[in-house]
Amino acid sequence: KQNILDILGFSEGKLTIRYLGIALVVSKLCQSDCKVLVESLMKRLTSWLCNSLSFRGRLQLISSTLFSLHVFWCRTFILPVAVIKQCESIIRSFLWFGLGDVRKVGKVAWSKVCRSKADGGLGIKNLRTWNKANFWVVCVTSQCSWHWRKILHLKEVLAMRLVFEIRDGHNLSLWYDPWLQGQYVISMYGYRVRFDSGLPWNVTVAAVFSNGAWNWPMNTCELQETSSFVQSIQLGQGSYSIHWVSKGQRYSCNSVWEAIRCSHPKVNWANLIWFPNWIPKHSFCMWLSCHYAHRTMDKLQRFGVVGSNRCIFGCGNVEIIDHLFFGCRFTGVV
């Protein structure tokens, strides 16, 4: 080794080093390896903290700038959970308080903030789900590196969204390709089904289809069930093709995120807030109202901040959101 170093004129380095802004590691990625990502977020925030930004202004900066800082990392590593939590804590604190990582409670739960606008959120992507959306599929072996194993453990999530156009079936593994509505025959019935069928491990889908009909072995109940399950699938000509979610749809990180994120019921007030030519400040205020998130007097009394929960405009009623916006005589005139 020393002779090589002498000939080339290089000095011997030590991992961890950074290349193109990210850490190069051979072992499990830890929180300290991602320190530069957290520092980048805090550095960018520091340049904004002196500005008097509205909620909507901070939301715009999060969507356009802060989120882009960790996209490159998300496409390179499966980030440690602790790092994702720290990044989300920084972004959450900046949105609600205009500060970096502080331990305060926001007006609306972060899980609701990270929903799509149609689902009642602000459209901020959940970092853990977005991280998963950037990776996909191959077999996991014990010889794989930690980083590669973390990527490949996501294969089951994405395989369910693949649509196989089987065609002649000559190049598709009968057992190990997810051609059966996004599932592997082996994962559905276990390895025993392969031995019960009497077919070899490397058999293709075409082997059980002949003369325009499926010809599965009927040795067990599992094989009979599989035969019934595939009767609606017809083979054709040419090599198979794989589509994402539906035929003709292009693969993208956004489409993966849409497929794997937690779905929630649509809210009936989304179009009242997020409409063409909407005013950001007004829309954000209305969004808070729909989530009953304004710090009205009834809430401040429960928090022990004030002694009375009566309306600040002197009408004598309890100040809750419905009263403040729709029932108060003073605000009604305004």
Could you please describe the fold and organization of this structure?
It is a single chain. By secondary structure, the chain is mostly helical. It has three domains: 2-106, no CATH class; 162-244, no CATH class; 272-333, no CATH class. It has helices spanning 2-8, 35-46, 55-74, 81-97, 110-113, 127-132, 146-152, 155-159, 185-189, 192-197, 221-229, 253-260, 270-273, 280-290, 297-302, 321-327, 329-333; strands at 17-19, 22-24, 162-165, 209-210, 213-214, 241-244. Strands 1-2 form a two-stranded antiparallel sheet. A two-stranded antiparallel ribbon has the order 3-6. Strand 4 (209-210) and strand 5 (213-214) form a beta hairpin. Helix 2 runs antiparallel to helix 3 and helix 2 (35-46) runs parallel beside helix 4. The longest helix is centred in the N-terminal third of the chain and has 20 residues, at 55-74. The chain is flat and about 85 Å long. The relative contact order is 0.09. It comes from Cephalotus follicularis. Residues 251-331 form the Reverse transcriptase zinc-binding domain.
Quick structural summary:
The chain is built from 17 helices and six strands. With about 325 residues, the chain is mostly helical. The chain has three domains: about 1-105, no CATH class; about 160-245, no CATH class; about 270-334, no CATH class.
Averaged pLDDT: 78
Principal-axis shape equals flat
Q: Helicity level, as a percent range?
A: 40-55%
Low-confidence stretches: 136-140
Radius of gyration: 28 Å
Strand content: 5-15%
Sheet having the most strands: 2 strands, antiparallel
Q: What's the β-strand tally? A: 6
- End-to-end C-alpha gap: 81 Å
> How many H/I helices?
17
What is the helix/strand order? Answer: HEEHHHHHHHEHHEEHEHHHHHH
The largest beta-sheet arranges its strands as 1-2
Structural class: mainly alpha
Tally the structural domains: 3
